[in-house]
Amino acid sequence: MTIHAVDVVHILHTCPGEPEPHPYDTRRILVDVIPGGPCRTPVTVRCGGQTVQIPCHRHEPATRQCGACRIIVTERTITTRTHTGAAA
Q1: Is residue 88 in some structural domain?
Q2: Does 60 reside within a domain?
């Protein structure tokens, strides 16, 4: 399985409608990708009279993909940035 490690950053602010600080911007930064390797169960499809094998992630839903094609997203760190002040 391919693993994507991301850092999540929440930026907070306040506004007249909601005086408590709350996130208004969430950013995800891709930090690392660990490849899962080649597809273990390629799918055979017909294309213009030919039969072609393609990786299962291009044809099958996530529940039927092989372990190498499945993608896992892991949140490495979650950061809340300081309060940016009241909205104008």
Answers
A1: no
A2: yes
82: exposed, middle or buried (Cβ count in 10 Å: 0-12, 13-18, 19+): exposed
Domain extent, residue 11, equals 2-81
pTM (2 d.p.): 0.69
pLDDT in tens, 10-56: 998 888 888 888 888 899 999 999 998 999 999 999 988 899 999 99
* Element spanning 73, H or E: strand 71-81
Indicate the number of domains in the chain: 1
- Residue 32 counted as domain residue: yes
For residue 72, CA distances in Å to 9, 32, 36, 43, 78 come to: 19, 12, 10, 21, 17
Which pLDDT belongs to residue 14?
Answer: 83
- In angstroms, the CA 37 to CA 40 distance is 9
